[in-house]
Design a protein that fits this description.
By secondary structure, the protein is of the alpha/beta class. It has helices at about 30-45, 50-65, 75-80, 85-100, 105-125, 140-145, 160-170, 170-190, 195-200, 210-230, 235-260, 275-285, 285-300, 310-325, 330-340, 340-345, 355-360; strands spanning about 20, 25-30, 65-70, 100-105, 135, 135-140, 325-330, 350.
């Protein structure tokens, strides 16, 4: 299959250690703007009225098990710097109802799995391999690549839940833990109450730390644009090659080197030697494919500024489009994905409106 530059995409190498759920259910990813629309419908405000049908269909699909609405670490990061406690809690309420706090595994963890399988394809299976993991797990911890859910542990962090479960009885213990996890996840999504913020700030809490990191990355993309603007690398296939190289150097290199080192290599020379090998390495990994090509497309239009929201969006799409069945995102990102033929390459339905999702979720 060729991309919009008429050059062939390399074959995708899917991570062997990542265990994907067997359909059904259908995995659906909504970007934050569409969650906001559903939250407005759920609250009954005027702005939510156009989305009442979508809310009802989503509820029915989630309740009968046909669909799992998944969250990601990007949702948690975007929510963390929303200054309105009321809006955060409205969002947390509908996210809890539809997702049940089901989350995609953290993006960096998935990238490590992809790199492992890519290097396996080049050099044979590594002697030491990463422990396999499920694509979909429970809660905010899982969304950041950690063990999902809360547990009881001793001072050394050793899980002592089994002992307490035996003391309390299985049913009582399981009910208690389910409620603890619900309350905890609800708090993580909804964020602290406003009157708690001064105390939390004294303890080092920063609600906008994720946004600060994204703003730094957006500035770096702006600097990159200034470097190639007006040069022969500023448009066409050459621009794509520059951004693919940048994806390797900025986003992937540390992870690639770590995996090469555990295989006994001391550098990347045996992996990449020219622009073709760089292209094949980066674009063979699903998350890197989406990330690099969306960034190149954004750079290609000089009227597009780079903002923290662009960074959040592209990171989210690089995770959701390869690993979900349906992705509902904003209009221009949807257009870019289709222009780049990434929806077809990754066999994912990409939509821009909740009304389109209604059509997809109607029982056959």
């Amino acid at each position: 299959m060729t991309g919009p530059d008429n050059r062939s995409y390399p074959d995708l190498i899917w991570p062997a250690a990542l265990i994907r759920p067997t359909p059904p259910p259908t995995l659906v990813y909504l970007d934050l703007n569409h969650w906001i629309s559903l939250a407005q419908a759920n609250k009954g405000v005027d702005r939510g009225e156009p989305y009442l049908d979508a809310l009802e269909v989503c509820r029915e699909a989630a309740q009968d098990g046909r669909v799992v609405f998944v969250l990601s670490g990007l949702h948690y990061m975007e929510l963390s710097h929303n200054s309105s406690v009321e809006r955060r809690k409205d969002l947390a309420s509908i996210m809890e109802e539809l997702s049940g706090f089901k989350s995609l595994l953290g993006r960096e963890a998935i990238m490590k799995f992809e790199i492992e399988s890519m290097l396996d394809s080049k050099f044979g299976r590594a002697t030491q391999t990463y422990q396999s993991a499920q694509l979909v797990g429970d809660g905010s911890g899982y969304a950041f690549g950690m063990k999902g859910g809360f547990y009881f542990g001793d001072d050394n962090g050793v899980d002592s839940s089994a002992e307490l479960r035996e003391m309390m009885g299985a049913e009582a213990f399981d009910e208690m833990m389910a409620e603890i996890n619900r309350l905890g996840e609800r708090y993580v999504l909804g964020g602290p109450e406003e009157n708690d913020l001064p105390r939390l700030a004294r303890m080092g809490y920063q609600s906008d730390i994720a946004k600060q990191a994204a703003e730094k990355r957006a500035r770096q993309e702006t600097e990159q644009r200034e470097r190639h603007n007006g040069t022969e690398w500023g448009s066409g296939p050459r621009l794509t090659d520059v951004i693919i190289l940048r994806e390797l150097l900025v986003e992937l290199l540390d992870l690639v080197l770590a995996d090469l080192l555990r295989r006994g290599f001391t550098g990347v020379e045996e992996l990449i030697s020219d622009s073709t090998s760089i292209r094949n390495v980066v674009l063979s990994m699903p998350t890197a494919l989406v990330s690099a090509l969306l960034k190149a497309e954004h750079h290609r239009n000089y009227s597009n500024a780079w903002t923290s929201n662009d960074i959040f969006d592209i990171d989210a799409m690089s995770l959701a489009v390869p690993y979900c069945d349906i992705v509902v995102t904003e209009n221009h990102r949807c257009n870019d994905l289709k222009k780049l033929k990434l929806d077809k390459k990754l066999n994912t339905v990409v939509l821009s409106k909740l009304s389109q999702l209604v059509d997809q979720l109607q029982p056959s």
